[in-house]
Amino acid sequence: MNRIVNFMKMKKITYKLFMITSLILLSFAVLIYLTLYFFLPTFYEQYKTNQLQSGIAEIIDKSKSLTVREAKELLDEYSKENNAIIYLQEKNGNIIYSPSFNFQGNTQSSIITGKTSQNEETVNAYNHSLPIQFLNERNLMVTVFATFQPIDEASQVLVRFLPYISIIVVCIGLGSAYLYSRFITKPLLYINERAQKMANLDFSENIVVRSNDELEELSNSLNEMSNNLQKTMDDLRIANEQLKDDIERERKIETKRREFFATVAHELKTPLTVMKGYIEGMIYKIGPYENRDFYLEKNHKIIEGMDQLVREILSMSKLEQNIFKIQMKETNLSNLIETITKDLVFFASQKEITVINKIPPNLYVFSDNDLLEKAFKNIIHNAIMYSPQGETVYLELTEDSKENQIQIQVVNTGVHIKAEELQQLFQPFYRLEKSRNRNTGGSGLGLYIVKQIFISLSINYSFNNVENGIRFLVTFPQIK
């Protein structure tokens, strides 16, 4: 379809150029022909008259120092050059000289020649007499007679030759117009074809025209426009992709925000509902709720849990918004782990969990002590909480001098987590136990807070299954 359209366009522009060029060439041919036919005779007659007059004036000027016989050569030369009849005659009309006869004093012959010459005078001719003076002759007249008949014959021949001239002019004109139109339209059609591709956002090919004229400048301008458009479209595409990513990210954030508020509402609603039930039972002294001291203690524990949840949410918010100030300093990691472990020993003993420490003394890292304490307390606490009763939790701190790093790993045995759920544990409020019973687990914010702390402190970590359980590995650069 595009080829048909281009062909029609080619025909259209080629036809226009062909017709315009043909008309111009034929108009010039007719104009030249008419000019030759109407103005050439007049121009030739004027030119011939001026030539005859200037020549006879030169002879009259030179004759003053010559005799008639000496002037014969001048008169003969003038007659040949101008194709004219020139003769000398006395006042009584006797011709004493003409190039048609010699000086023999034959008056009768001269009269006949003179009469004949007079009879040859026609309307379309030059016939003029002027006085001339020689050394030995006085009161003579020089007469010049020249016919313009040859130019009239040329005009008649031009009229007869008109059909042949017309055929030649038409053939040459049409052929020249066709070649000219093809020569001009070929680069234009090529440029138009490439411009159509550019209009269809196809910038794969540049326009190449080597003509050292405006067409080459036009092709270069179109190529520059094409390159600018392609660059702009690439920038727009990148910006569009970035915008899509930003929108998708905002959607995810909005989804997480809604999930966050729903989860927080659920986490707070459940203990509040329980507390409300306890308090109403105590107020109305219903059944077992008459034991106010027992249920007050239960309410106190629920409030402590809610307080812990609120503090975790506040910590998470601060970490996400980076509104806290990190205090980087040299920290004794060995002492920090030992202190955390001692605080959790009682909690581990209630589940008959064995905690094995392999912590060498005085290993230092450069970090924020408070944030590290919060992170490792959550890690070790989770290891103890989610280990089955009677299992073991290993704590090992090692120094690798070759790699210039310090590693700490926390391994709790008897646990295996599906690979697809390992990283989800670092999402806020995510718990493997879907019922979200607080007796079987925490709020689901512990590992998320750990993740945010390690991101803020630029600390590498990993969490994966090992042969007998789960391992949490943290790596620090060694202080030099």
Backbone shape? rod-shaped
Strand portion: 15-25%
How many angstroms separate the termini? 75 Å
Secondary-structure element string: HHEEHEEHHHHEHEEHEEHHEE
Low-confidence stretches: 3-10, 102-122
Number of strand elements: 11
How many helices does DSSP assign? Answer: 11
- Radius of gyration using CA atoms only: 61 Å
Spatially, the strands of the biggest sheet line up as 6-8-9-11-10
Q: pLDDT average, as an integer? A: 76
Range of helix content: 55-70%
Query: What structural class do helix, strand and pairing data support?
Result: alpha+beta
> How would you sum up the major sheet?
5 strands, mixed
Give a quick set of tags describing it:
alpha+beta, four-stranded antiparallel β-sheet, 15% strand, rod-shaped
Task: Give an overview of the whole structure.
A five-stranded mixed sheet has the order 6-8-9-11-10, with helices on one face. The protein has a four-stranded antiparallel sheet with strand order 2-1-4-3, sandwiched between helices. 16% of the residues are buried. It is α+β, with helices and mostly antiparallel strands and 480 residues long. A hairpin with a 4-residue loop joins strand 8 (392-400) and strand 9 (405-413). The two termini are 75 Å apart. The chain has eleven helices and eleven strands. Helix 1 (2-63) runs antiparallel to helix 2, helix 6 (214-284) packs antiparallel against helix 7 (292-321) and helix 7 packs parallel to helix 11.
